[in-house]
Amino acid sequence: MILIPKQYENVCLTEYDDALPELRDISQGKPTPLVLISGAHGTGKTRAAYALRRACVENKVRFAMRVAPDLVVSFQALARDDMTEFERRLDYLKNRGGVLVLDDLGAEKTTDFVLQSIYIIIAGRERWGRATVVTTNLTPAELGDKLGDRIASRLCSGVVVKFEERNRRGDER
């Protein structure tokens, strides 16, 4: 179960029909390329992800959302304590059907372990045609600098949308 922060409880995918028609297809379970949503903080990227979550639930499409820095911290702890469980969870994110949203990718501290884990998830989902949406504050060039060209190339191989609107956070509270 995904807990919904109060400011995102009533978001609707129709807010994004013009900017991100691919989200509508994803929410209906249609095959789609990876969607990368980039933009400055507060421009609505996470809000769009929660709108997608709501539409997926309404359409009975499997959905998982992970905040990238939180995911990395939990993976690092698991790998230290229980490598079998770490590998099981990594495999689950890589192979599970339905939609996976990685929110705020690029905000995590990068190490070789982190880069390898991210690569395994992104490349695996791409290989098996799994719907994946990634939000980031980084530009495609900055993603290359932060995560390496192999990951950035995959992230930018699908639909890339730049959110350039005003900071919405003041409006959501």
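Next protein, fold it too.
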Amino acid sequence: MTEHRPAAPAHAETVEQVVRAQLAKALGGRRGMVEAAVPTILFTVTYLTAHDLRTALVVSLAAALLLLAVRLVQRSTVQFVVNALVGIGIGWLFVSLSARGGASEDEQALAYFLPGILYNSGYAVLMATTCLVGWPLVGFMVGSVTGDPTAWHDDKQIVRLCTRLTWLLVLPCVLRAAVQAPIWLAGNGGAIDPQAAVALLGVLKIGLGWPLQIAALAAMAWLLGRNHTPIGGRSAAVE
């Protein structure tokens, strides 16, 4: 009996098309990039110029709320602004916990960047683990479209392609954590001036954010452009 594979949408005939569409949906395009970057830029610039942590937090939060209001007025998706607001909220929580522990204002400012470092470290470990155990995370993007979350795993070609794509998503997270963590530790430990560490982390969070993600996506696009893997079949991919 022939194995049943749920049909993908009519416009998506290959795994590559599915992954492109899902990544575009998840990342939000240029506007999503701007909405993610603006609060961090304003936090860093405001803190370094006004030397007031609360003002920097309020300015970044106000900017995110303004972006949210614009989205609501235009009746467009608020997903990416909400993501920014969640990031600010978690950063504010870490700042508050640092303050309760008796940290200086500079140390509290450094605490704002700690969640991002922890997130990238954890996400890199999670995605790398999915590759190592043979269930790459990108494969579940394919499964979300076909209607069967695990059917893709029966096709070794799809597994191989999704593993390569997942590793490309791992690399930016590893690089961010590897570059930012030593700076955070040095600033928090007094090896470098804390304000200099805040400035560096602010610049790196932007510079290693979307630009690095775009580089990874460009590599993914190149890899996707070389292959044409049918969603429901086992035809050989173009190597």
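About the second fold: The chain has one domain: 15-226.
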